[in-house]
Amino acid sequence: MTPHRSRAVCRSRGHPCDNGRVGDGDETAGQGWLLLIYRVPTEPSRLRSAVWRRLKSLGAIYLQNSAAALPASVGAERALRKLRSEILAMRGTAVLLSCTVLAGVQDVLSAFQAARDDEYEEIVDRCADFVAQVEKEHVARHYSFAELEENEVDLDKLQKWFARVRQRDAFGARGRLAAEKALATCKDALEGYAAKVFAEEKDI
After folding, report:
1. The whole model's pTM is what?
2. SS (H, E, C) the chain
3. Ordered structural domains, the chain, with CATH
4. Residue 80 to residue 78: CA distance in whole angstroms
5. Per DSSP, what are the bridge partners of residue 9?
6. Going by C-beta distance under 8 Å and a sequence separation of 6 or more, which residues neighbour residue 83?
7. CA-CA distance, 185 to 148, in Å (whole number)?
8. 8 A C-beta contact, residue 176 and residue 169
């Protein structure tokens, strides 16, 4: 199939240039990406680790070493511009591009979706641990407000974690539904435990 062509914008440090529009794969995924290409000093190694952690927290995927991509958005651009400034302050180099994919868009999308699915899967695993812990309290008949409060804090952390992943899930990864169901199961488990705690209080 012959790709459709049209003009698009690619910006490097704010300078315009010509690029092309995606002609294959998922059309939504091809509407625009931000690409940060950078280099940081090899020592100290904590600098590279800091950049990697920041990009991971944003949900970026690596297309190659030191070339990380995110779906284009105002928030993502702001965050990557800030990171670029920090890399320059480390005496590194960095350019930020806004562009589209000419070929291989499905590969880029698949990598992005896989990264989100991995995050959702980790949430599901943590939810299973949460439910198991609540069940353990039932078996031990350990019903206390202190434990209830601790479980509420843990569930709140899981929900906020899911919200962060959901925010960077630009294309609706398949793993999201499983994570939502797992969180609902956690909520039901906590409500059941809370009911037991309140019942025990009335019996005292």
Report:
1. 0.81
2. CCCCCCCEECEECCECCEECCCCCCCCCCCCCEEEEEEECCCCCHHHHHHHHHHHHHHCCEEEECCEEEEECCHHHHHHHHHHHHHHHHCCCEEEEEEECCCCCHHHHHHHHHHHHHHHHHHHHHHHHHHHHHHHHHHHCCCCCHHHHHHHHHHHHHHHHHHHHHHHHCCCCCCHHHHHHHHHHHHHHHHHHHHHHHHHHHHHC
3. 8-102 (3.30.70.240), 108-203 (1.10.132)
4. 6
5. 18
6. 36, 51, 54, 55, 94
7. 16
8. yes
Two structure tokens written together for 173: 């990864």
Residue 157 pLDDT more than 70? yes
Model confidence at 10: pLDDT above 90: no
For residue range 30-54, list pLDDT tens digits in order: 569 999 999 999 999 999 999 999 9
Burial class (CB in 10 A: 0-12, 13-18, 19+), 147: middle
**Residue 195 identity:** A
> At CA 53, angle to CA 163 and CA 115, rounded to 5?
55
Structure tokens that stand for 62 in this block: 């690596």
Angle at 102 between CA 97 and CA 106, to 5 degrees: 100
**25 within 8 A of 106, measured Cβ to Cβ:** yes
User: Which two structure tokens, joined as six digits, stand for 52?
Assistant: 């990697």
